[in-house]
């Protein structure tokens, strides 16, 4: 399909619904616009709707499942993501049974200025209509110059560690002089707990340490094993 086959429905800066050709939407800052639809909960639904507060934007994201919320969290943690919105637009294209529409789960703005469109669906839950929608979305993104990613299950160790750090993502957990002292202590790699105790009382210092790990001022291996007192922490080269 060529670009003329696609249209995009979205809500503009004045909260007015619009529907335009894809070619007219390439430069829109979807991450700054309102979602094109509201995520609603209803009796008997299979998934659970939950909001996620994104530290990257200081805004709530509406998510239709725990898995969506977890992927929102991972994008919030990604230093390449500078903007993020859920339910960004509705894509229209000529499908097998007439005109079809699909709302991707997320649109992210990246630090190089590019766009990333994300759909969340595990492999085992993809039906033929879903596959058609994802293929059409991938094609539209290719034409628009955006990246497209369809994501599913998350590594359990990475998920557990990132969820723990996300509990300290709010800026209120950044406190001085503990933050600067932790950065100095971990200029040389060392154990998480022993480094925190060099700065002060662990109950006061650990929330600051976890916040610095979230912001990537400090870094630690989040994929090999669960975070613990002996996890090796080091100061990162770059930070958010």
Question: How are the secondary structure elements laid out?
Answer:
Layout: E1 7-11, E2 17-21, E3 50-54, E4 59-63, H1 66-77, E5 81-86, E6 90-95, E7 98-102, E8 106-110, E9 115-120, H2 128-144, E10 147-151, H3 156-166, H4 178-185, E11 190-191, H5 192-199, H6 202-214, E12 218-219, E13 232-235
Parallel strand pairs: 9-10
Antiparallel strand pairs: 1-2, 1-6, 3-4, 5-8, 6-7, 8-9, 11-13, 12-13
Helix pairs in contact: 1-3, 3-6, 4-5, 5-6
Structural commentary:
The chain has 240 residues and is α+β, with helices and mostly antiparallel strands. It has two domains: 3-39 and 46-151, Trna Endonuclease, Chain: A, domain 1, CATH 3.40.1350.10; 156-235, no CATH class. 29% of the residues lie in helices and 25% in strands. A four-stranded antiparallel sheet has the order 2-1-6-7, covered by helices on one side. A hairpin with a 4-residue loop joins strand 3 (50-54) and strand 4 (59-63). The protein is elongated and about 65 Å long. The mean pLDDT is 93.
